[in-house]
Specification:
Distance between the termini of chain A: 95 Å
CATH superfamily of the largest domain in chain B: RNA polymerase sigma factor, region 2, helix turn helix motif
Largest interface: A-B, 42 and 56 residues
Number of strands of chain B: 1
Helix content of chain A: 40-55%
Number of domains of chain A: 3
Shape of chain B: globular
CATH architecture of the largest domain in chain B: Orthogonal Bundle
Number of domains of chain B: 2
Largest sheet of chain A: 4 strands, antiparallel
Number of helices of chain A: 8
Radius of gyration of chain B: 20 Å
Helix content of chain B: 55-70%
Strand order of the largest sheet of chain A: 2-3-6-5
Distance between the termini of chain B: 63 Å
Oligomer: heterodimer
Strand content of chain A: 5-15%
Strand content of chain B: under 5%
Structural class of chain B: mainly alpha
């Protein structure tokens, strides 16, 4: 047997909990190995020395007021406790307090999911990317940002692609797009209808620089 | 405030003298007392305190080597137990449950470093003079024969305080309190192998610290 393994079994050997074959092996090892034998003897002495600590006793009458003090402390503890703890204690719902953080987190999650659900369930407002087509089919409309008179301003113009919804009829259903035909169909003066969502990269324009 | 008043009225029980009902309760098992306490019979919980306060105190005292700290910690333990009584399902005995609270609170207390630095030791009772272990230790030809009992106690406690909290806990629970490895493992929520390993290293360290005794 390995020395380390034997050293782990000192307590079981002393208390007689080891099965006989194992106990015999451990004793044999202790007889053969001087280091382990010395170690075993020292452990035994140390245990006897530690066991003497049981004779350390508090002075007589030390626990006489223990219960009174306990009640006073409990009373003070309850005074310090907030309203909710007192309420929970009175209603025997104390275990819930230990779950309060979990419950609060779960509540927040459910609330967030609820909000998300409500947000997704709303009908698309003007400005959203999709709108029901006249025939009940969805369509995707892209329109360039309106450009006005300030196109000629000196300041550089940073344009983000804007996606507009349309509430006008000229639409093209994705199901009715002819691949060989024109993909983009003009709707009105400045509106285009696309057959797919396409986000064009941002453009950085300097239309004119005047000094 | 009404709730608080109601609570105070309920807790006023200990001041009253022992009645026949109390005497009846004293013969009840822990489980029955716990059930009564869970139903609001505070006297039942008082009896549980009476039953286990000294054993809990001994454990905590051996871990802290300070009488005042031990007293405070045992009080805190029972307050915590009383407040958590509703969550006690009886999966272990009441004593194991409250013992675990006491040991964990003591370990946390020691980790926070709020313990008093000086030792405040209990007296050694006279029964030690007839203890076979003591007689054997004194009969051996080592320097401890010349060491006074009080000094020996001081050295032992000082050596114990040099151990880490977990090592001290397993030594106290096993070698002083006589608990089994399995019970200690359950209490400290670790494996039996860990308990054995901690015991081994703690004893090694103690043997080094108390080398004059070998």
């Amino acid at each position: 047997m390995k020395c380390y393994r034997v050293q782990q079994l000192y307590d079981d050997l002393a208390s007689g909990r080891l099965p006989e074959p194992l106990s015999r092996d451990v004793r044999q090892h202790l007889a053969d190995c001087t280091d382990c034998r010395v170690q075993h003897q020292r452990t035994g002495r140390l245990q006897r020395l530690l066991a003497l600590k049981r004779h350390e006793q508090p002075p007589a009458g030390y626990f006489d007021n223990f219960l009174t003090e306990f009640n006073a402390r409990l009373d003070a503890d309850l005074r310090r406790a907030g309203f909710w703890r007192r309420l929970f204690a009175a209603a025997d719902l104390e275990p819930l307090l230990s779950w309060r953080y979990g419950l609060a987190t779960a509540g927040c999650l459910i609330g967030a999911l609820g909000l998300l659900w409500v947000g997704l369930g709303q009908s698309p407002a003007p400005g959203s990317a999709t709108a029901p087509a006249a025939g009940g089919e969805s369509m995707i409309v892209f329109a360039p940002a309106p450009r006005g008179a300030d196109d000629d301003l000196i300041a550089p113009r940073f344009e983000l692609p804007l996606i507009y919804a349309t509430d006008v009829e000229p639409t093209i259903s994705s199901a009715r797009v002819n691949p060989s035909g024109p993909v983009v169909q003009q709707v009105g003066a400045t509106r285009y209808v696309l057959d797919r969502i396409s986000v064009t990269p941002a453009r950085y324009d300097v239309s004119s620089v005047d000094f | 405030m009404k709730l608080l008043d109601q609570f105070r009225t309920n807790r006023a029980a200990p001041a009253r003298p022992a009645t026949e009902h109390t005497i009846e309760l004293q013969h009840e098992e822990d489980e029955a007392l716990v059930r009564r306490a869970q139903r609001g019979q505070t006297r039942a919980f008082d009896l549980l305190i009476e039953r286990y306060k000294e054993r809990l105190y001994a454990t905590v005292y051996h871990m802290t080597s300070n009488r005042e700290d031990a007293h405070d910690l045992v009080q805190d333990t029972f307050i915590k137990a009383y407040r958590s009584l509703g969550s006690f399902k009886g999966q272990s005995s009441f004593y194991t449950w409250v013992y675990r609270i006491a040991v964990n609170r003591t370990i946390n207390f020691l980790k926070r470093g709020k313990n008093r630095t000086h030792h405040s030791l209990d007296n050694v009772d006279d029964a030690i003079q007839t203890d076979p272990d003591f007689v054997e230790l004194m009969s051996q030809d080592t320097p401890r024969r010349e060491t006074g009992l009080h000094e020996q106690q001081q050295r032992m406690n000082a050596a114990l305080q040099k151990l880490s909290d977990n090592h001290r806990a397993v030594v106290v629970l096993h070698d002083v309190q006589g608990m089994t490895h399995a019970d200690i493992a359950k209490m400290m929520k670790c494996s039996e192998g860990t308990v054995r390993s901690r015991l081994f290293y703690a004893r090694q360290q103690l043997q080094g610290l108390l080398s004059e005794y070998w």
